[in-house]
Design goal:
Blueprint lengths: L21 H12 L3 E2 H4 L5 H6 L4 E4 L3 E2 L9 E2 L9 H12 L3 E6 L10 H14 L4 E5 L7 H8 L5 E3 L9 H4 L5 H14 L5 E7 L5 H13 L4 E6 L16 H14 L3 E4 L9 H15 L1
Parallel strand pairs: 2-5, 3-4, 5-6, 6-7, 7-8, 8-9, 9-10
Antiparallel strand pairs: 1-2
Helix pairs in contact: 4-5, 5-6, 6-8, 9-10
Length: about 300
């Protein structure tokens, strides 16, 4: 398996347009009017222009300040904000105004809280369902410090997709995710599948942080063993000079190769490409996974 491990200048396939257009401006104003945060903005997602132009967004609840300091993430680290118990309703109202059919809800880490913010996740799911019947709700949660009770609170609200990102291979955790534990993230994915076996589980990771092909293959095997239904693989892009450097740029051919490897193992859906992120094409991923399961029955 030949993979180029050398860094290079940013290639053409990673160039994206600056966000603009009527839909983008309308959505930006809507978020500000309801005092809501999106991970699209906070994490400086390269797909924000495309997604917002199609009136889709990933809402970030529990404030905009994280208790962790991951080396790849642009979200601010520090003392978190007080909980806003009206936030779930405002998210649901924004979903209603946007006319969404699939919404993704994520959050910062709130390690200072006993339930890690799980109660607010559950309230957000229920408010979205109350105001938007028929809208699919996907959650992208923290690891809740390995609390099954916290995870149970979220799963009892019956999200349509449960997502928790592993982000990278286990060897790199100390550098990339210093407050996280690889096995704990795998456990969260396993527990979610146990609690709601009929609902898809999902995770994602990045290339370009120093991983080797053998490590990526082992990671995919771990995810398959945990019965993960959807895997997203994208290129790590350094948000600022203060973040971890990019070790290399994986080519589009390599991303296609990993998609083939994951599917050959039996993972139902692998979304793999330089600009792929957790929520990118989330609606299509759910439909593709449902179709795959239907074909297997």
């Amino acid at each position: 398996m030949a993979v180029d491990l050398s860094p290079a200048k940013r290639p053409e396939w990673l160039r994206v347009r600056v966000p603009s257009g009527r839909n983008y401006e309308e959505l930006r104003q809507l978020m500000r009017s309801k005092s809501l945060h999106t991970v699209c903005e906070e994490a400086r997602c390269p797909n924000m222009g495309e997604c917002w132009a199609h009136r889709t967004a990933t809402f970030m609840i529990l404030g905009s300040v994280c208790t962790r300091s991951c080396g790849f993430c642009a979200v601010a680290t520090g003392r978190p904000m007080a909980l806003d118990w009206e936030e779930p309703k405002r998210v649901a109202e924004a979903v209603q105004q946007m006319g969404l059919k699939h919404v993704v809800v994520t959050s910062v880490n709130r390690d200072e809280m006993k339930d890690g913010g799980a109660t607010l996740f559950a309230a957000t799911i229920r408010w979205i369902r109350r105001l938007n019947p028929g809208c699919a709700v996907e959650v992208l949660t923290p690891d809740f410090k390995g609390s099954r009770d916290a995870l149970r609170i979220v799963m009892d609200a019956h999200p349509d997709v449960f997502n928790h990102n592993v982000e990278t291979v286990p060897r790199l955790y100390r550098r990339v995710r210093p407050q996280a534990i690889y096995q704990r993230s795998l456990d969260v994915l396993s527990w979610a599948k146990e609690m709601q076996p009929d609902k898809p589980t999902k995770t994602g990771f990045m290339l370009g942080l120093g991983e080797t092909p053998d490590e990526v293959m082992a990671l995919l095997r771990d995810l398959h063993e945990r019965q993960v239904d959807i895997v997203t693989i994208g290129q790590y892009l350094r948000p600022t000079p203060a973040h971890l450097p990019i070790e290399r740029y994986a080519t589009p051919d390599e991303f296609r190769m990993w998609a083939r490897e994951g599917k050959a193992m039996g993972i139902p859906h692998v979304e793999s490409g330089p600009l792929v992120r957790s929520s990118y094409h989330a609606w299509d991923q759910l439909k593709a996974t449902e179709a795959s399961h239907g074909a297997d029955e």
